[in-house]
TrEMBL record:
Its EC number is 2.7.11.1. InterPro entries: Kinase-like_dom_sf, Leu-rich_rpt, LRR_dom_sf, LRR_N_plant-typ, Prot_kinase_dom, Protein_kinase_ATP_BS. It comes from the Eukaryota. The chain crosses the membrane at residues 254-279. It is found in: Membrane. It comes from Brassica napus (Rape). Residues 321-532 form the Protein kinase domain. This is non-specific serine/threonine protein kinase.
Length: 532
């Protein structure tokens, strides 16, 4: 019996050992398979997937268990080596930065990510992708300088990084790209002299337009160090079509900024009421006349050159618009839905001209608006100058407008935005503060009750604060709301609209203040109040 028990126990032990070894072997095999499940190129693209999201989930369908990324949407591989040679994901509303791991794709020949919402800096590691022949990153929100490492891309033929928020100088190293035949850095915030040595000297003005602080022979603009006669060039400012003669000091600049702000807001308010009045009064007749007005010698001015349409094609579509295409009454007039033959959709806003003076002023303002790019602002693509009206062409947003969720508010920009023409986080915070004041007061920023006193909503708040009675800005219908909540909202709004950008909180801090003082924290996919 003892021998039998011993044998049985030994058998059990042997079985346990065998099972343990089998489990260990299985675990090792699984790790081996996991490591072999994706190639190094696939790992680099998974880094891209981890930081980028898209509305259609295109990158979310990339599977890390695949042996290579060659069947992933937007990815092309060499048939023999299975190395990634192209990454093409355009018009997918991709949001996020470019990870430096993309620099590991050393066989990449084509990088095509234009017309998305990508942001952050262009990684210097792209300079390691020495097989690159074409780079298309236009119409995104990239910031920071152009990496000088891109001068290492000796095979590069086409480089388009236009319509971003890039800053700094154009690297001299780009002039060493001997195969470069197409080059476009237009509509950024680049500064300094355009390198005149190397191949960059061969490109025309169109490659550099929209960078007001660039200079060089390519754009017929002398650089400051090349013109010692500082008095030979006029430094006057033209304001509302008339020359403004100032001393170049802060007083003149502040006067221009303040006057432009007040004048612009008054103009927008006037056009808001005027446009809606005409829409209600003219009704169907307005839409029927559109075809006649467009056909009367109209011209198309496009701000972004990536639209594949000739002027005649756009005008032909405009002439076919009628009342069935009306999607609303905007701040300046009637808004139409414009469907192009290739499936792209745009929003067309029709503005009735008032007089010749207004025409010249508004056309100049449109050029400023057309150069603005911000990932939270709809793009103004261009306009049509017809004999009796202005036609603005915007990207179409199917989700509607903020006007449908609030009570007719229109965008209100911070004063320093009027000076620089750039939308930043600080101007976003300022606008959010104005929005809070709209909610608290129940009035638009340029309500007639403010205008009659010579203020807007921010000016009126500052006046009430100086009189130690800021609570008077709160609408009477808010009397049932807890006093602590109203005071907290008013305090947050006051901080957001501070005249000094450095004193405004970040939106991260604003959310924390709202959660701690006004409302209970609520789960959201859009922010985490405990993070930056």
């Amino acid at each position: 019996t003892i021998l039998r028990l011993s044998g049985a126990m030994m058998g059990i032990c042997l079985m346990k050992r065998c099972c343990s070894r089998l489990l260990l072997i299985s675990f090792i095999c699984s790790l081996t398979n996991l490591n072999e499940a994706i190639s190094p190129d696939g790992e680099a693209l998974m880094s891209f997937r981890s930081v980028v999201s898209s509305a259609d989930g295109v990158v979310g369908r990339w599977r890390p268990e695949d042996p290579d990324p060659c069947n992933w949407k937007g990815v092309t591989c060499d048939a023999k080596t299975k190395r990634v040679i192209a990454l093409s994901l355009t018009h997918h509303k991709l949001i996020g930065p470019l990870p430096p791991e993309l620099g590991k794709l050393d066989q990449l020949r084509l990088l095509m990510l234009h017309n998305n919402n990508l942001y952050g800096s262009i990684p210097t590691a792209l300079g390691n992708c020495t097989s690159l022949e074409e780079i298309y990153l236009q119409n995104n929100f990239f910031t920071g300088p152009i990496p000088s490492e891109m001068g290492n891309l000796s095979m590069l033929k086409n480089l388009d990084i236009s319509n971003n928020d890039l800053t700094g100088a154009i690297p001299v190293s780009l002039g060493q790209l001997e195969k470069l035949t197409n080059f476009n850095v237009s509509n950024n915030f680049l500064v300094g002299k355009i390198p005149s040595d190397g191949l960059l000297a061969q490109f025309s003005r169109d490659s550099f337009i929209g960078n007001s602080k660039l200079c060089g022979k390519q754009i017929d603009m002398e650089c400051p160090d090349e013109n010692s006669s500082t008095g030979s060039r006029s430094t006057g400012v033209y304001f509302f079509g008339l020359p403004y003669i100032g001393q170049g000091g802060k007083t003149g600049k502040l006067l221009i900024s303040a006057s432009a702000t007040v004048g612009g807001l008054l103009l927008v308010a006037l056009m808001c009421f005027w446009g809606c009045f005409l829409y209600k009064k003219l009704g169907r007749d307005e839409s029927k006349r559109l075809a006649i007005e467009v056909g009367g010698g109209a011209s198309i001015v496009m701000f972004h050159g990536d639209l594949p349409y000739a002027s005649k094609d756009i005008i032909k579509k405009l002439e076919a618009l009628n009342e069935e295409h009306i999607i609303g009454c905007g701040g300046f007039g009637t808004v139409y839905k414009l469907d192009m033959d290739d499936g792209n959709v745009f929003a067309l806003k029709r503005i009735v001209k008032l007089n010749g003076g207004f025409d010249r002023f508004f056309e100049r303002e449109l050029e400023i608006l057309g150069s603005i790019k911000h990932r939270y602002l709809v793009n103004l693509r261009g306009y049509c100058n017809s004999p009796t009206s202005k036609l603005l062409l915007y990207d179409y947003l199917s989700g509607g407008s903020l006007d449908q969720a609030l009570h007719g508010t229109f965008g209100y920009l911070a004063p320093e935005y009027m000076q620089s023409g750039r939308a930043t986080e600080k101007t976003d915070v300022y606008s959010f503060g104005v929005l809070i004041l709209e909610v608290l007061s129940g009035k638009l920023p340029t309500d007639t009750s403010y205008i009659e006193k010579g203020y807007n909503v921010v000016g009126w708040l500052n006046f009430l604060i100086s009189e130690n009675r800021p609570r008077e800005i709160v609408d009477r219908s808010c009397e049932g709301v807890e006093t602590e909540s109203l005071d907290a909202l008013l305090s947050i709004a006051t901080k957001c609209v501070s005249s000094s950008p450095d004193e405004r909180p970040t939106m991260h801090r604003v959310v924390q203040l709202l959660e701690s003082q006004v409302m209970s924290p609520c789960p959201s996919d859009f922010y985490d109040s405990s993070s930056d």
